[in-house]
Amino acid sequence: MPPPRRAARHRVAAALARRGTRERLVLALLLYERLYPIEVANALGISLRQVERTYDTLLTELRGPAARGAGRSRVRSTPPAARVRKAA
């Protein structure tokens, strides 16, 4: 059995190999260039929502079956900055 780090690197490489050029580019700009999602969307001419979907899809795939196990909710938490207080 490969060491945990090697196994993790292998999973990441395999997941990226299954992705298209645009998806790999989105991830590179977010993770390596450290651009904000809106900057990535503007640079690639795609919507902010598409950038978010691409990132979320890959993270879900990388987390694997253990993270999708029974009892886990698929509800995504909204970042604090995006929450809106409703008037009473």
Describe this structure in words.
With 88 residues, the protein is mainly α. The protein has a domain at 4-64: Orthogonal Bundle (Arc Repressor Mutant, subunit A). It is built from four helices and no strands. It has helices spanning 4-17, 21-32, 37-44, 48-67. Helix 2 (21-32) packs antiparallel against helix 3 (37-44) and helix 3 crosses helix 4 (48-67). The chain is elongated and about 40 Å long.
Topology:
Layout: H1 4-17, H2 21-32, H3 37-44, H4 48-67
CATH topology of the domain at 4-64: Arc Repressor Mutant, subunit A
How many E strands?
A: 0
Task: Flag low-confidence runs.
Answer: 77-86
SSE string, helices as H and strands as E:
HHHH
Give the helix/strand class.
mainly alpha
Report the portion of residues in β strands: under 5%
**CATH level-two architecture of the domain at 4-64:** Orthogonal Bundle
Tally of separate helices: 4
- Nearest-angstrom radius of gyration? 16 Å
The main pleated sheet reads as: none
Determine and state the CATH class of the domain at 4-64: Mainly Alpha
* CATH H level, superfamily name of the domain at 4-64: Winged helix-like DNA-binding domain superfamily/Winged helix DNA-binding domain
| First-residue to last-residue Cα separation | 57 Å
Shape: elongated
Task: Give a brief outline of the structure.
The protein is an all-alpha fold and 88 residues long. It has a domain of 61 residues: Winged helix-like DNA-binding domain superfamily/Winged helix DNA-binding domain (Arc Repressor Mutant, subunit A).
Features:
61% helix, 4 helices, Arc Repressor Mutant, subunit A, mainly alpha, elongated, 88 residues
